[in-house]
Design a protein that fits this description.
A hairpin with a 5-residue loop joins strand 6 and strand 7. The chain is α+β, with helices and mostly antiparallel strands. It is built from 3 helices and 9 strands, in the order αββββαββββαβ. It has helices at 2-20, 72-77, 154-158; strands spanning 24-26, 33-35, 53-57, 63-69, 89-103, 112-117, 123-127, 138-151, 166-167. It has a 7-stranded mixed beta sheet. Strands 1-2 form a two-stranded antiparallel sheet.
Length: 168
Amino acid sequence: MKKIVAIILVIILLFGGLISTGILNFSKNSTEPIVENSTDKSAVEEPQFKKEGELTFLKNQQKLTIEIADNDAETAQGLMYRRSMPDSCGMVFIMPDYEPQKFWMKNTYIPLDILFLDESKKIVTIQANTTPFSEAGVESYDKAKFVLEVNAGYCKRKGIEKGDVVKW
């Protein structure tokens, strides 16, 4: 009997330590524990697309509905955790400095074409078919002020090329 009591006491102390450190938490609506340091990507709620403008490729008049990332938090979030995006949509990043840019695909489920644009909104680099979840740098190589992310293969399907100009 003493062994059982000792085992229960150890379990209670261990469990209490996990709760007090914040490693283990409980949802208000569930008795299932939530592990805070989990790498389970499905635990993050998928962000919803917000229409904030329209972008046009001047060469062929192709149009995209765009969401704009124009601050540090939105730029850091980007398209992470989104499981899909309509082919008629994209995200424009307005970078603070006109310099070579580098992005990654961490926590990004969908493969993308990443277009880097200079200050006049001319495409200077297209990085096509990026790899989801990759932490490898996706570089502009040239100076860029804006970055446009669209579904992988969009540039090929629509005839978008380096040197094309956009407006929004």
